[in-house]
Amino acid sequence: MITRRSALSATLATTGVALTGAGLTPLLAARARSQAAPAAPGTPEKFRRPMPLLPEKKPLARTGRSDLYVMTMQPARAELLPGIPSDVLTYDGHFPGPVIRARAHRPVVIRQRNRLTVPTTVHLHGAAVPPDSDGDPMDVIEPGTERTYHYPNRQPHAPLWFHDHTHHLEAENTYRGLSGSYLLTDPTEAALPLPKGRYEVVIALRDARFDEQGQLAYAMGDRARNTLLANGVPYPYFQVAARKYRLRLLNASNQRRFELRLADGGPLVQIGSDGGLLTAPHTTDRIALSAGERADVIVDFSRHPVGSSVVLTNTTGPGPAQDIGEVLRFDVVRTAHDPSRIPERLRTLPPLPRPDTQRTVVLRMDEGGEHPGAYIDEKAYDPQRVDAHIKFGASEIWTVTNANARAEHNFHLHLVQFRILERAGEPPQPAESGLKDTVFLAPGETVRLQALFNTYRGRYLYHCHMFEHGVRGMMATMQIR
């Protein structure tokens, strides 16, 4: 579990001691080596346990102006491996965390209580929120205290999610369970005849490694997290009716990238990504998700007879194919009436404004060595430094490059959704044609994106969303004024 040494790392960072991300990397790496545990005896047997539905968090109260929630970050035990309770960190005792359903232009207020032994913050990923509610890595909730986050929801529909963002602890805190989903809807989305109710399912995907006692094992940069979880269960099955389902997919892994396919090569109709619906549905045979990305996908199980099954597979590593090649199995168990349909047009996105300025961002991580550093524009994260000054209301084009020859990265902007203009000099593929807040970059790859900074003034982060790259220093601060 997270130790007092973890808390010390965060305390040093938050009290202004002259230790930046680069300075603390050796300490964290040494700790990771000391905590490394032998691998679990074997891979859990596949498709023996059902995939649970994530619980929906209900407001404690509704006023004429907002929905009020109280949420407690607390330790708990979850049966991740059959018959073995594992120690986890949770929101309200749930692993993964619950789903909050919110409406555009109706604010949500959440009082977060920290009943853990380490500091935390809460970042609502993909949301336009005031800086004091963004979950800045240094703006922590100390153990035994609480704070209130205000989410105005003045943005279109989007499948947001929330997770810890405490500097030097975010990777381990999130790995051990501090993440949940936040589905923001609006009249545009609600009016569409898409699958609803029990036929709309949130699926949080991630990886894990277990020690010999069946406990979650954490080590910095661990590439042996080869057990795949769907809604907290390794390789589950999920019973479906022979009709269309809307699957809200989230990659909640620290670092892993997924390429998801149906084992029979069947169609996947992607209707949305990080920032909500695409303008039109896109039929494909694969869904790619790097850490932190989301996809909104329709699967029509009516093409399968009752009594049959189809496996959701993963076709990218790292890890042995027998461990990481299958994710979950859909079992078609009944027929059902299906009034839903997929419209040819889903939404209209406004035209991109003429850009006011352009800037470049270079992501790089040391390749090799015992304590690899990670940088944005050759600088490790320093919470006291502003790296980009942005004029409020400006539309900017950012050219983001992965300068590594082997390491993958991705790129996340706080506060804003953006549009991808080019990937490797080519127009974006349909899956990336909508609004995004996180984008994958292969080694040596460059992506151009455009964002409009017209919601809030203040300081916000931009960083690689592979958590352990951020811990090592691949984060920076922008000031909007």
What is the fold's blueprint, element by element?
Elements: H1 4-14, H2 21-35, E1 61-62, E2 67-81, E3 84-91, E4 99-103, E5 108-114, E6 123-125, E7 146-151, E8 158-163, H3 170-175, E9 179-185, H4 187-190, E10 200-208, E11 227-230, E12 233-234, E13 237-242, E14 244-251, E15 258-262, E16 268-273, E17 276-284, E18 287-289, E19 294-300, E20 309-314, H5 321-324, E21 326-335, E22 357-365, E23 374-376, E24 388-390, E25 395-402, E26 409-413, E27 418-423, E28 435-436, E29 438-441, E30 446-452, E31 458-463, H6 467-471, E32 475-480
Parallel strand pairs: 2-5, 4-9, 10-14, 13-21, 22-25, 24-32
Antiparallel strand pairs: 1-2, 2-3, 5-7, 6-8, 8-9, 10-11, 11-12, 14-19, 15-18, 15-20, 16-17, 16-19, 20-21, 22-23, 25-30, 26-29, 26-31, 27-28, 27-30, 31-32
Subunit structure: Monomer.
Protein name: Multicopper oxidase CueO
Catalytic activity: 4 Cu(+) + O2 + 4 H(+) = 4 Cu(2+) + 2 H2O
Give an overview in words.
Its EC number is 1.16.3.4. Residues 35-58 are annotated as: Disordered. This is Multicopper oxidase CueO. Belongs to the multicopper oxidase family. InterPro entries: Cu-oxidase-like_N, Cu-oxidase_2nd, Cu-oxidase_C, Cu-oxidase_fam, Cu_oxidase_CS, Cu_oxidase_Cu_BS, Cupredoxin, TAT_signal. The chain is mainly β. Among the domains are: 197-335, Cupredoxins -  blue copper proteins (Immunoglobulin-like), CATH 2.60.40.420; 349-480, Cupredoxins -  blue copper proteins (Immunoglobulin-like). The chain is built from six helices and 32 strands. The strands form six sheets. It has a seven-stranded mixed beta sheet, with no helix packed on it. It has a six-stranded mixed beta sheet with strand order 23-22-25-30-27-28. A hairpin with a 2-residue loop joins β11 (227-230) and β12 (233-234). It is globular. The two termini are 41 Å apart. Residues 3-41 have low confidence and may be disordered.
